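Hi, here's the filled form for the chain we discussed.

Project: internal
Contact: R.S.
Residues: 194
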Amino acid sequence: MQWRRLAKFHRETLHGRERRLAAIGGELKRIRECAGLPQSVAEEAEALVKRYFDLMAGFPPEVVAVAVLWTAAKAAGAPRPLEDFLKCSRADERRVRKVAWRLKEVMKLGRRPSVEDYVKTLAARVDLPAPIVKAAVELLERNRRVLFGKNPWVSAAAALWLASLKRLGLLKALAEAAGATPVSIKNAAGRMKV
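And the returned structure, exactly as it came back:
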């Protein structure tokens, strides 16, 4: 009986990150058993969760669990259809695919490009000077929460456009370089606090 009280006390005193890891771990175990996956796939999925924890912030534990198990099964050479995992969970398929896509992109790149990388690439494409690049990076750093989950190319173009004091001719060049429309860049600029 005492161990139950201790376990309850431990669960209640976990910090946010640890509590989230515990919730995801519970979902991983439940879905692994339901889908009949080998333990090695579950261990790989746990490693993915720990390595890319910040990448999956904001998604429910069941979505994260399905996405990492699906990705880990592919990586282990035992790919399974997503439906096999979804029947064991109440996760939304669209959100699972989004998390899995993010994982695939980060694993392919080895690291997630920083905001500064996007800004520098766009600035080089349209030949902007270093002071504008520096101002754009600072602007994006201040507006990080507003731009979370948005297209990084559009956000970088909007920051460069604002840093260059909204030069109209530059808007079209930035839109072309970013592969976006001028309207989407203006909308992203409108969300930023200068």
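Let me know if anything looks off before we file it.
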